[in-house]
Amino acid sequence: SGVIALGGLLCEIDEYLPAPKILICTKCNCPGHTRKSCRLDYERCRRCGNNRSNGDHKKCDITCHHCGGEHQANDYKCPILLQFRRDLIQQLRENPNRLPPHIQMFIPQDCRTQKSERSLTNQNTNDNLKVQQNFTYANSTSDWPYLKNLSNTYSCNIQLKELQTELDSLKLKYQLETEKINNKFQHLSNNIQKTCLLMQTQINTQKEMIDTTTTVIKDLAFNMNTNVVNILNNFIQLISEIAPNDKAKNKLNMWHDHLKIQSQLISEKQTSFNNHIDNLNKLWLKQSNNIVELLDLYLPANNNDQ
User: Fold this and answer.
1) Mean pLDDT of each 10-residue bin along the chain, 306 residues long
2) Are 31 and 40 in contact (CB under 8 A)?
3) Model pTM score
4) Torsions phi, psi for 10 (to 5 deg)
5) C-alpha to C-alpha distance for 202 and 290, rounded to whole angstroms
6) How far is Cα 95 from Cα 93, in angstroms, rounded to an integer?
7) Which residues in 139-159 are b (16+ Cβ under 10 Å) and which e?
8) Distance from first CA to last CA of the chain, Å, rounded?
9) Do 82 and 110 contact (CB within 8 A), yes or no?
10) What is the pLDDT of residue 125?
11) What distance in Å separates the CA atoms of residue 140 and residue 138, rounded to the nearest whole number?
12) pLDDT at 116
């Protein structure tokens, strides 16, 4: 039982339970057994009670062979059938556990011992149903039906929503931080590229200046001095051949030896200078390769991003 709202009014309702029907044999028209287990030798007419194999029983007189009343033998107006139903309900009232589970049997008014008695149920099954029932209805006509306490489920839903909100917030923060880090990395990458390109330009410029300076120094300092020393040596040899005395020859020989020493010194300086230039070229090549490798680390990544 319970209540429902109709047109703004709370109405009490009960589950519809049809009147119980007793088992009546279709062969002998007696209650309590089926045609298959019937022991009568012939099929009895429910109108007149005689053997159906004898004569036409479509228009025979209606006389109940249970009580002699003017009704068919399987009619519930028959007092014999009514008494059988009362006895059956009384036995079920005394032994309700014989009822099938989850079944309520309606008790007709003529079979009730009390006015409040309306149905029979298996008590054990009824207790289990009360435990498993999801809804509870109030018997008062002024109260609405209410659900059982669902605070646990509601609390779980709130916690799930809070966790989902927190997760979304963390996800948004993660995305913002990731974007910020990517922007910083891109900015640093661009600065490194610019610095590398500037260093590469500077190194190439220095290489050009070193090459130009090397050419000038070799032409002016070493080659010219070597030529001057050679000319002086040749000139001293010519003069020594026409020298008037030994004193002049000795002095010319001394100059000749001094020029040899200067020529040897120029040759040593030129060798040292060439070694220094070779070291500078190696250093330039190493720096240039490092700059190229550093640019290769960033330029492909930026090209892929674009």
Assistant:
1) 80 72 89 90 92 87 92 90 87 81 75 76 60 45 45 67 90 93 88 83 84 80 77 78 75 80 82 85 84 74 47
2) no
3) 0.37
4) -95, 120
5) 14
6) 6
7) eeeeeeeeeeeeeeeeeeeee
8) 73
9) yes
10) 55
11) 5
12) 74
At 304 the pLDDT is 47
Name the token pair of 130. 């009360």
Using a 10 angstrom Cβ sphere, with 0-12 exposed, 13-18 middle and 19 or more buried, the burial of residue 92 is middle
Distances (CA, A) of 23 to 49, 230, 267, 292: 18, 149, 139, 103
Please spell the DSSP secondary structure of the chain, one letter per residue: -EEEEETTEEEEE----PPP---B-TTT--BTS-STT---SSPBPTTT-SBTTSS--SS-----TTT--SS-TT-TT-HHHHHHHHHHHHHHHH-GGGSPTT-EEEPPGGG-SSTT--EEE-HHHHHHHHHH--EE--S-TTS--EE---HHHHHHHHHHHHHHHHHHHHHHHHHHHHHHHHHHHHHHHHHHHHHHHHHHHHHHHHHHHHHHHHHHHIIIIIIHHHHHHHHHHHHHHHHHHT-SSHHHHHHHHHHHHHHHHHHHHHHHHHHHHHHHHHHHHHHHHHHHHHHHHHHHHHHHHHHHH-
What is the distance, to the nearest Å, from the Cα of residue 99 to the centroid of all Cα atoms in its chain? 51
The residue ranges of every structural domain in the chain are 2-152, 176-305
Q: Which pLDDT score is estimated for 156?
A: 73
**145 and 3 in contact (C-beta within 8 Å)?**
yes
- Residue 110: partners with Cβ closer than 8 Å, 6 or more residues away: 82, 86
State the pairing for strand pair 135-136/104-106: unpaired
Q: What is the C-alpha separation between 272 and 90, in angstroms, rounded?
A: 133
